[in-house]
Amino acid sequence: MNTFYQAKFKELFLEFTRYLVEYPEFAEQIPEGAQVVFLDRNDPEFNRQSIHFSRRARDTDDEPDRLVVYVEVGELAPIRSRLQNPKVMASPPTYVAA
Fold first, then answer.
1. How far apart (Å, rounded) are the C-alpha atoms in residues 74 and 87?
2. How many of the other CB atoms lie within 10 Å of CB of 9?
3. I need a labelling partner for 15 at 20 to 30 A (CA). Which of 6, 46, 59, 71 fits?
4. Residue 18: which of 79, 93, 96 has the closest Cα?
5. Which residues contact 31 (CB under 8 A, 6 or more apart)?
6. Is 7 helix (H, G, I), strand (E, B) or coil?
7. Do 72 and 64 form a contact (C-beta atoms < 8 A)?
8. Structure-derived torsion over alpha carbons of residues 59, 62, 67, 72, reported in degrees to the nearest 10
9. How many CB atoms lie within 10 A of CB 73?
10. Helix/strand/coil for 92
C-alpha cells in the first residue's frame, strides 16, 4: 500500500474507531476477531490496495481462517476545529514562565 493510501487507511481506522465509540451497536454487526477491510465507493484504487493488503495479512495471520468483513466507509464529514474561544495576544500571559 503506497504512502497516500496508508495515510488514508490510518485516518479511516481512527474515524471508524470513533464511530464505534459513539455507536457501539454498529460493532455488534462485526463478528469478534474478524478482519475489517475498509472500502470507499469513490476510490477504486484504495479498494484494490485495501483488499490486496488484507489478503497479504492473511498469509501471516495466526488464525488462517479468520472471518473477513468489509465496511464501506460512506463519506467523511468535514474536519472541524474543537478549539473554543481562542485569543490572539501581543505577549505571553502571566501564567507562562519565560
1. 36
2. 17
3. 59
4. 79
5. 67, 69
6. helix
7. no
8. -70
9. 18
10. coil
What pLDDT score does 69 carry?
96
DSSP string, 24-91: HHHHTTS-TTPEEEEE-TT-HHHHHHHHHHHHHHHHT-SSTT--EEEEE---PPPP-----S----SS
The amino acid at residue 46 is: F
Flag the least confident range among 17-26, 42-51, 78-87: 78-87
Spacing of C-alpha 60 from chain mean position: 22
Q: What is the pLDDT of residues 1-44, one digit of tens each?
A: 788 989 999 999 999 999 999 999 999 999 999 999 999 999 99
